[in-house]
Amino acid sequence: MSWIREGELNLLEKISANILKAGPMPKHVAFIMDGNRRFACKKNLERQEGHTQGFNKLAETLRWCKHLNIPEVTVYAFSIENFKRTKEEVDGLMELAKQKFEKLLEERENLEKHGVCIRVLGDLNMLPLDLQQLIAKAVVTTRNHNKCFLNVCFAYTSRYEITNAVREMAWGVEQGLIKASDVSEALLSECLYSSNSPNPDLLIRTSGEVRLSDFLLWQTSHSCLVFQSVLWPEYSFWNLCEAILQYQLNHKSIQKARDLHRDEQAVEQLEADRACLAEHLQHQGNNGKPADAQKRQEALQRYIASREERVQDFLHALKHKRNSFFHDLCSEMVLN
Amino acid sequence: MALLYSLLWRFLLVLVRVKRAVVSWLQIRLRSWRGRLWEGTITALLLPVAVSEFPDYQKKANPNVNVEPVRGNRAVGSRARWLSDGQSLEKLPAHIGFMVAEEELSFTDVANLVVWCMAVGVSYVSVYDNHGIFQKSSSRLQEEILRQQQSLLGIDESKYDVELLNNSRDKQQHFVVSCRSTVKVLSPEDGKHTIVQAAKKLCHSVENKERSSKDISVSMLDVLLRESKNIPDPELVVKFGPVNSTLGFLPWHIRLTEFISLPSHRNISYEDLLRALQRYGACQQRLGQ
Fold first, then answer.
1. Cross-chain Cβ contact A210/B283 below 8 Å
2. Quick check: ipTM above 0.85?
3. Most buried among A271, A280, B87, B161, by the most CB within 10 A?
4. Domains along chain B?
5. Confidence of residue B286 (pLDDT cuts 50, 70, 90)
6. Which chain B residues are within 8 Å of A29, Cβ to Cβ?
């Protein structure tokens, strides 16, 4: 089964899509695709068949999202905690992933036509090497596509992601690119695996569970959360519409909360900059503060500019490091 | 055509809002009707004890609950009932978070929730709103909790020591009410901000060559966050209000938290809380397996 589904919506779906599109639409939707095994159990299928049908549903959902003008989708494919499952099931899932990424590489031209960019978020080092290489190949091949984005969280948990971001910043400090005092909320966000995406507007979890299970905890703090009771392989266009309607009902109040948070963050950053400058000046020995307000202001501006420059250099280096990780995996693959 | 769609969209939104309002109105009606029926039956059966058993229904009839005199046996009766309710639940959260996502906050209702949680045996209760209003006026909340504790549980203030642990630097309010329960007032500051502070600390130690970036692990960060604020992970968060979002509530801690949504915290009754706790009791976690 392929990643890209062709085909239009039927008339009723089209009309409903147009009605929804008259309101504010989410730009980025995240899915916890829960319920594959329960679905298999209910239908007396093999567990693996449940996972396969789950994947097919993903391809279908991507088609709906395209018609609803949702350019970015993030899915929780495999959690680090899932390694605790039976060896048989983990191996089955790895095999399924391998097949799907091979298939994806075969469909290269179609992906290019639709401008689909695939990103994989997670610690690839935990995966078997051949799967790592396939993933790297898929990521590198679709890197420059920019119409729709699919982020697949694989060997991922949010706490691990946050910790990894802290580790990257500590690496930056070790390399002398940034100072420990440059660490901020905005910088941490930039060091997450999801740094290239805006935060999701809407998070959907299926199968009636009402928790986040360590998925995008940082990124969804001002997202609309929708918990639906349908099992993932049974997810329908109408379920998606219902979730979007929920988002639209929540849109105003969430936007307000986001604005509030942004303002608070800006104040916090300014305070941090002031404190750093004061400390810096104290070190220079002129008793903490330059004489008049104007000079103080100028010194602050200079400090902010230099901090921003450091941060930009660091982020550039980080991006380079991550890109070369994928490139190295790809070239290893060619050598093999 | 676009205009037509836009009109239809507006109409749809109104329809959903009306549906929501009707459903929640019906729920309240049904509840009070059922409550009255129940109360009636019990009154008939156990005439003398009955009134004392359902203080929250009394409260509805008489909204000014604070001026009600505390009658010893009434309080003891409800306390015993709450405790047995707590014991009859399949599992009880050790930390329950109340998140209020409404414009108007009612301190009395939140205080009631806290007191009921203490009565059923929850050892850690946190209260959150994304404007940080509860935290700014935490002394008022504390007073309100004490008052409700007296009126609902009949606990004499002089007998139970109420401690106020004031973490003066960031105005963290954290107080121990009675010997068993801890109440914590949270704001967005305790969320991402605290994670960033921990990250800064780790980066400083890397800067001073005390550790290498490779040593940083999930458990290290977790321990560091626990040291600074000592907030356990909440097993259950009850969210009040129409907004479906965590609005910055402790992002690190809510990894496995169950979220239960209730329409409003105003005039919330003990039965509503009990129902949420029962729903939590029925949730199963597979922890990745």
1. yes
2. yes
3. A280
4. 66-282 (3.40.1180.10)
5. confident
6. none
